[in-house]
Write a structure and sequence with these properties.
There is one protein chain. The protein is mainly α. It is about 100% helix and about 0% strand. The chain is rod-shaped and about 140 Å long. It starts with a helix and ends with a helix.
């Protein structure tokens, strides 16, 4: 009789242990899900801000590139004009000799 009671108590204790273990696992899973969602939200915010900064930097670099291209074109035109003028001066100097 005592052996049967002990076995019944052991079964009950095992059932309680399994139920509590499952409850703890579920609670831990919910906590991890909550932490993960918060971490993901923070990461998304961080990446969005970084993306905006990179977009601004790209916009600025593109504007600077356009300005430099215009200056280069103007400098090339000035160089071409200077070369043409120099050639004329050399020809004129050679003709007068």
């Amino acid at each position: 009789m005592e052996l049967d009671l002990a076995r019944q108590e052991i079964r009950q204790l095992r059932t309680d242990r399994d139920r509590l273990s499952t409850a703890v696992r579920h609670q831990l899973g919910r906590q991890l899900d909550t932490l993960t969602a918060g971490d993901l939200t923070a990461r998304v915010d961080e990446l969005t801000q970084s993306n905006q900064q990179l977009t601004d930097q790209l916009r600025q670099a593109t504007a600077e590139n356009t300005t430099l291209q215009q200056r280069l074109t103007a400098a090339e035109a000035d160089l071409t004009a200077a070369r043409t003028s120099l050639r004329r001066m050399i020809r004129t100097e050679n003709m007068t000799r």
